[in-house]
Structure formats: structure tokens, C-alpha cells
Design a protein that fits this description.
Rossmann fold, alpha/beta, Transcription Regulator spoIIAA, binds FE3-S4 cluster, binds S-adenosyl-L-homocysteine, about 40% helix, 16 helices
């Protein structure tokens, strides 16, 4: 008799589960931080689609709210905390049964502690544990804590076809490496995303095949450190030395992967991010120069122009080596645009060091830049061993100085396009005017121009007539022969 009741209970539970699946529960998912988070959220949406979840953009109607979080700077974490307050308000007012999960780097960094600190949080899931989401959801529904922050040696989600969220149907991200082994002393990423591993080129090609079949025109290969891509049959990058002779002889590096993808899809625009100067080799630049469809744009963070600070940051190259790399890029791809990440106010940074950063910027004259004041991160080498000793007002002033200089350089770079014709891939209507299209040229600069009869997803040649600080303005003169 007792057995029968349990059986019936089980059957009942199974029926509820089935009904839930059929009922299509609603998932509200949002992402903060780097592109990898946005890309991971597409993997998560795919995993949960098989559990019957449809995505919604209305927080009020969500059964499950997931926030993919960033730990890179303190401010990024504060933004997420604010969002949790908002979820709490909505949950109380509209939907007391709403469940809330935290994904990504903050989940990995804070682990169980999150459940105590933020009462609204039901589930904490690190970046390598998304396949466990169905199990974790069951735990949550049974009223138990659900935490999985185990970092993996081999998870790359290579077998999951991401659900493209907020997609324009034109450009997509494809993850090729996960984790980072570089251990820059300021950076929390190696702790939150684990050791570096590369994805099987076969599964990368399959994902791109699918995108091309769906009409996508541009793919950005994504990783914390893409130039370090190395597939030798699986396993961590750091274990490559231990691989067999055959594995070593048949390994695929980043230049080979790019060559393969660019050759297979000659009409597909290819981009990649992020490059680490120490790992960007000449053969990558040569492959870029060889293929017209690989965009002439490299995001090449430098962090500081001072050799002493670069050393303190454990960046594995000098200012001079960086210049040599820039010279090689400009020699092989004269119209290549380069952008930077720079941190001001790293511990012990002097006025002299700061001047070195400014003079480095003068040498390169970056197209664009992402500039930050140093934010001490718990657990990192700099966080543990160095005093955050540059006063906030000095950090602020230095940040303003490099931002001002960057604006000047962006203007100089943009002026170089005046009167020239660029191939632009149309992505969407311009934010400022519905009569204009917006897209990017090969150098990743946004170009706007009158719509005429052109449409989203087409390549057009645009003559540049004017520019603002962030945008080129022009007129389409013809279809490009890439359509
Ligand atoms: N290789 C990664 C880097 C991720 S972090 C990538 O895919 O882009 C992005 C940038 O944030 C870094 O290049 C650095 O400039 C900045 N950053 C990282 N840690 C920081 C910290 N503790 N304080 C301020 N800025 C930081
Ligand atoms: Fe961070 Fe340095 Fe890796 S900035 S992501 S540890 S290359």
C-alpha cells in the first residue's frame, strides 16, 4: 500500500513536470560584463529550452530569472546587486513564485555565500556548470539550496546549439576557448572561469555551418585569449606538453583555425576577440592579411605603457615587444584598426609610469579604447600582495587624461576615412534616425547612411563624407560584390 502511494506520488510529480514542460515556463535571462557572458546565456537558454522554458523580455511574467554576472570590477558587481533588488521588488509585487538564479563570474567567486548575502537568490551556478541547470532547478523546486560552482577541465559546451538571444540575424558570437591561464595579477577571470581549454574545431565548424544556413553574415570567434587556441584532441592548454607526438603533430592552432574557417566560408565576415599581445603570433597576422573576409581589426589590450607596471601586472611582454607587434600588424595590414584596454592607477603607478602609457598611446593612435581605473579584486595576486595605493582622485585624473587622448586619436583615425569607400554590413536601423541604416566597416567602426532600397544583412560600399567622435557618416554607392 505504502509503495503504491509513493508510486502514485511519483507519477503525480512526473505529470506535473510534463505539464510544466508543455506549459512552457517563462525564462527571463539577462547578462552583464563581457561578450562571453552574453554568449554563455545563449547556451543556457538552449539547455533550458529542452526543459520547456521559453524566454521572455518581461520580468513580471517570468517563472525563472537568471542573471549572468561579471566580477571584473567592483562596480560590475554593484550593478548586479542593484538588479537583484529590482527582482526582489517585482517578485514581491507580481509573482511570489518567481525563482532567481545567479550565473557567471560572481556565482563562481561568491559561491554559497551568495545565498546568505542575497535572500532573493535561490540558485548559484558557475560558468562551467550550466549543464547541471535542470538538476539544480529540481532542487530549487523541492525547496533545497542549489549550488554548483565546479570548474571543469574540459567543458566547452561544444555540443550545445545556442539559442540566439536578441539577435539581429546578421552577426553572432561563437566561443572557441574558455578560461584563461595568464594570471595577470589584477584579474579575477582565471579564478572565476578556470583553466584554459579549446573547443573541437569540428564543433566550431558545425556551429558556423548552422549560422550560415540561417543567413548570418558575420561571426566573431570568442575567447578570453583567442590567439592561444590549441586543439590537440581535448585537454587543458597547459597539458599540451604532455600530449603524444601524434597529437602534437596534428594539433590545430589559432592561425590554422582561422585559415580553415575563412577558406570554408569566403563570404562570411570573420572577427575575433580578445587577443593577448604575448600570444598573437606573426602567422595570425599573415592569415588575416591573406583572407579578405577576416576583418582588419584587432582588439589588443595593453593595460599600461610602463615596463615596470607591465611586469607587476604579470603581463608577459614589454612595451618594446608590443611596438614590434604593432609594427608587424601595420606592415602586413596597413589599414588595420587597433583598439586597447588600459588600466590606470594600478598599485605603485607613478606619474612617470602614467606618462609612459600616454606616450605609448601616441605611438599607436588607437582607433578605440576601453579604459578603467584599477579596482582591487579579492583573491587576485595584486589584491593579496599589493596596496591599492593610488588615491582615487589621482586615478580619476589619469583616467580623464587617457580618455581625452583616446578621443583625439579616435578623431584622427576617423578623419582618415573621409572621402574613402568602405564595405559595410548592414545590421539595423540607426539609433538616431529610422531613415538611416547602421552597420560596421571592416575596421569595426560604426557607419550610418540613408537606407534607400538596401536592407539588413546586405554588404554595401559606402562613401564616407563626415564623422562624429564615434561614428562615420556616408552614402551607399553600390552593393559590394560580397553579397
Ligand atoms: N582577456 C579578456 C580580458 C577580460 S577583462 C578579454 O576577453 O577581454 C577586460 C578588461 O578589464 C581587461 O583587459 C582590463 O583592462 C580590465 N580589468 C580587468 N581586471 C581589472 C581590474 N581589477 N580593475 C580594472 N580593470 C580591470
Ligand atoms: Fe584576465 Fe589577463 Fe586572462 S586580463 S582574462 S588574466 S589575459
Amino acid at each position: 500500500m505504502e509503495e503504491k502511494i509513493i508510486d502514485e506520488q511519483k507519477q503525480g510529480e512526473a505529470l506535473v513536470l510534463e505539464a510544466n514542460k508543455k506549459n512552457k515556463r517563462k525564462l527571463f535571462i539577462e547578462s552583464y560584463g563581457c561578450q562571453m557572458n552574453f554568449s554563455d546565456s545563449e547556451v543556457v537558454a538552449s539547455i533550458l529550452a529542452t526543459e520547456g522554458f521559453n524566454t521572455t523580455d518581461k520580468l513580471e511574467e517570468a517563472d525563472l530569472v537568471l542573471v549572468n554576472t561579471c566580477s571584473i570590477r567592483d562596480k560590475a558587481e554593484q550593478t548586479v546587486r542593484k538588479r537583484l533588488e529590482k527582482y526582489n521588488a517585482v517578485k514581491t509585487k507580481h509573482n511570489p513564485r518567481m525563482k532567481v538564479g545567479v550565473l557567471g563570474c560572481m556565482a563562481e567567486r561568491l559561491k554559497e555565500q551568495f545565498l546568505e548575502e542575497e535572500k532573493i537568490v535561490d540558485m548559484v551556478v558557475g560558468p562551467d556548470a550550466y549543464k547541471d541547470l535542470p538538476n539544480l532547478l529540481e532542487e530549487v523546486e523541492a525547496g533545497r539550496d542549489a549550488v554548483n560552482v565546479i570548474l571543469s577541465r574540459d567543458e566547452t559546451y561544444g555540443d550545445i546549439a545556442p539559442v540566439r538571444l536578441q539577435s539581429n540575424g546578421v552577426s553572432a558570437f561563437v566561443t572557441i576557448t574558455r578560461g584563461c591561464d595568464n594570471m595577470c595579477t589584477f584579474c579575477v577571470v582565471p579564478f572565476t572561469r578556470g583553466r584554459e581549454r579549446s573547443r573541437d574545431p569540428q564543433s566550431i565548424i558545425e556551429e558556423i555551418d548552422d549560422l550560415v544556413a540561417k543567413g548570418f553574415k558575420e561571426v566573431t570567434l570568442l575567447g578570453q585569449n583567442v590567439d592561444s587556441f590549441l586543439w590537440y584532441g581535448g585537454g587543458l592548454k597547459k597539458d599540451f606538453e604532455k600530449a603524444s607526438e601524434i597529437q602534437k603533430a596534428t594539433a590545430t592552432n589559432f592561425a590554422m583555425l582561422m585559415d580553415m574557417v575563412a577558406t570554408k566560408y569566403p563570404k562570411l565576415r570573420l572577427r575575433f576577440t580578445t587577443s593577448n599581445p604575448q600570444d598573437m603570433t606573426l602567422d595570425v597576422i599573415e592569415i588575416m592579411a591573406k583572407h579578405r573576409n577576416i576583418c582588419n581589426y584587432i582588439h589588443l589590450p595593453i593595460q599600461s605603457g610602463s615596463n615596470r607596471i607591465l611586469k607587476e601586472m604579470n603581463r608577459q611582454h614589454t612595451r618594446e615587444e608590443y611596438f614590434a607587434l604593432i609594427d608587424n600588424i601595420k606592415r602586413l595590414i596597413p589599414d588595420c584598426a587597433i583598439s586597447q584596454d588600459i588600466i590606470v592607477g594600478f598599485p605603485t603607478e607613478t606619474e612617470e609610469d602614467h606618462k609612459d602609457t600616454l606616450s605609448l598611446m601616441e605611438y599607436v593612435k588607437y582607433e578605440y579604447g576601453f579604459m578603467f581605473a584599477y579596482s582591487e579584486r579579492p583573491g587576485t595576486m595584486a589584491g593579496r600582495k599589493m596596496d591599492d595605493d593610488v588615491p582615487e582622485d589621482v586615478k580619476k585624473r589619469r583616467l580623464t587624461e587617457i580618455q581625452t587622448l583616446q578621443r583625439e586619436h579616435s578623431k584622427i583615425r576617423h578623419d582618415e576615412f573621409l572621402g574613402k569607400t568602405c564595405e559595410v554590413l548592414i545590421e539595423k536601423a540607426s539609433k538616431k534616425s529610422d531613415l538611416q541604416w547602421s552597420g560596421r566597416n571592416s575596421q569595426n567602426v560604426v557607419v550610418v547612411f540613408p537606407k534607400e532600397d538596401y536592407t539588413v544583412g546586405e554588404f554595401v560600399n559606402v562613401k564616407i563624407t563626415d564623422c562624429t567622435s564615434g561614428t562615420l557618416i556616408g552614402e551607399a554607392i553600390e552593393y559590394s560584390d560580397n553579397n
